[in-house]
Predict the structure.
Amino acid sequence: MPVAKPESSDSRVIAHVDMDCFYVQVEQRKQPQLRGLPTAVVQYNEWKGGALIAVSYEARKFGIKRSMRGEEAKEVCPQVQLVQVPVARGKADLSGYRNAGSEVVSILARRGRCERASIDEVYLDLTDAAEMMLTDNPPQGMETIDEEALKSHILGLNNEDGSDVKENVRKWIHRHNADHRDKLLACGILIVAELRMQVLKETEFTCSAGIAHNKMLAKLASGMNKPAQQTVVPFSSVKGLLDTLPIRKMKQLGGKLGISLQMDMGVNTVGDLLQFPEEKLQERYGINTGTWLWNIARGISGEEVEGRLLPKSHGSGKTFPGPRALKTVPAVQHWLNQLCEELSERLCSDLDQNKRIAHTLTLHARAYKSSDSDSQKKFPSKSCPLRYGTAKIQEDAFNLFQAGLREYIGFYGDKTRGSHCRGWGITSLSVSASKIVPIPSGTCSIAKYFHGQSTSHFSSMQSSDNLNTEATLSLPSGSI
Ligand code: DCP
């Protein structure tokens, strides 16, 4: 966990932009007759109408949730439109969603440093653009403020006395006596509203945004008012926001650390953390994490927006829930081959388009052992150097799987190979490629760079950048 640099964080303008019900919007753009109707995107599978992975805001009004199956959604709202995720190689094909995300990123990146954080969200560092606006054309002097900016939600702005909310926002943006930080945020409001309008115009997609002085606060804010709205966190409202915020809502505190804070320290809200001195938190959780916790309690986060439009890693995965768990080695190999084929295509495309190569291949799996008391044991993730070429990736991934399985079940004799391996089942599989770096400049040809490796299909691949695999799989952070 990064240790914050508090001195640098207060006067930055950071936005977190998150697309609204993203897969639904992509499908509705393809089929405009679905616009405005309760719609959900379902993951390919026959059981109870498939799993919902994206739900339109119209459908949410009927109580339809992502956790439902298609059939349940139909019961709740018979007129719901269910759209299947495209399928390729027997698994969800997310390339259309990835490409749609790339369209958005290319627009958002126009005004500042842009970090693509997932298939449908980005961080923007708009500090320079805001400083420039303050110098050249400060909002305080603007005669008219764009309608979209006036619809912003500014945390801490008192709208309770029945006053005109947009008028209050206008006054806030126009304040001459505001401190420098608020003036910068006022610029951020205008810039983000304009970018969001541009995204709508060029892609037909709506998005929501949070605007604050750091990534953590911007991310918290972007989800507060959806869809198609933006929320601003002025410095003076940070304490109020965090005081009552459940600790598990914080990024990185949804898991074990959050549970320990609740169970061991009695911390239920971020505000509860304020009572502990930094030393106490360091004693309990180590120097870095202790300092990080002390900082987030105060809304401090020095995490930089990384200038990264391309993914950090590529991943391809598939889940095999319940009765579809894979129980034979050949079945696992079959699916690994499919996943590796997709991964290989994406790697080749990245190489072709961006001149980047990946160095590490990792295999993740989830498994169960029915006959074992040690059923909590996790299937170990395994990595090896990545060799280009579909067949090589397939071979290496299979070897990684075998090594993982040996460790998982404690033994792995020849007698299990090819036959039913009673007692274990694989419920998810994924392969990912990471440590992606540009090819060293001066390399005269890709073939030469990969001397000794198969380069025959490098130029024949199509898919562009990468994105999340199927819904429930965990891939390394930065995998899109
Ligand atoms: N997604 C998925 N499986 C999940 C979660 C999400 O396949 N368990 C996909 C479908 C979503 C997209 O990722 O459309 C983005 O996920 P978000 O969590 O950002 O949710 P949405 O964009 O669908 O809705 P919201 O408007 O609430 O952000």
About this structure: The radius of gyration is 25 Å. The chain has a mean pLDDT of 88.
